[in-house]
UniProtKB/TrEMBL annotation:
This is DUF2147 domain-containing protein. Gene3D superfamilies: 2.40.128.520. It comes from the Bacteria. The lineage of its organism: Bacteria, Pseudomonadati, Pseudomonadota, Alphaproteobacteria, Rhodospirillales. Residues 28-143 form the DUF2147 domain. It comes from Ferrovibrio xuzhouensis.
């Protein structure tokens, strides 16, 4: 009995750091705090990128895929939003932080600077800003896969 308890304790000691290490990556599928979009984050070379995987209203009134109508570049306004890379260039700067990226907001057609970090509860803190991080907006995303 003592041997089994020792084995269980040993397994728990090694399983806890493994679980923490697995949760310290943003690679996966995340839903924003409004519940309107899901973004799949994956490696892009040495950086991380995020692709718009799902959103609440993917089709327009005619049943056609919603396109990037508000893009500041008229040549890109016909591209579908579904499957669009909206987060890119994030480089790891710490155990749970990524910085120096960009995030595209289809609602206003603008690109912003982006940083992100994993919170203690496993959620993802995404900060988008113009000139300085202090003048930005933070969203908290929840992992769904």
């Amino acid at each position: 009995m003592l041997r089994i308890a020792g084995l269980l304790l040993f397994a728990l000691l090694f399983a806890a750091p493994l679980a923490i290490a697995q949760s310290a990556t943003p690679v996966g599928v995340w839903q924003d705090d409004s519940g309107r979009i899901q973004v799949q984050i994956a490696p892009c070379g040495e950086f991380l990128c995020g692709t718009l995987l799902w959103f609440r209203w993917p089709n327009d009134d005619q049943g056609l895929p919603v396109v990037d109508l508000k893009n500041r570049d008229p040549g890109l306004r016909g591209r579908p939003l579904l499957g669009l890379v909206i987060l890119y260039g994030l480089r790891r700067t710490g155990e749970r932080t990524w910085e120096d990226g960009k995030i595209y907001n289809p609602e206003d057609g603008a690109n912003y600077h982006a940083n992100m970090s994993i919170n203690d509860d496993g959620s993802l803190r995404v900060r988008a800003y113009g000139l300085l991080p202090i003048f930005g907006r933070t969203r908290v995303w929840r992992r769904i896969r």
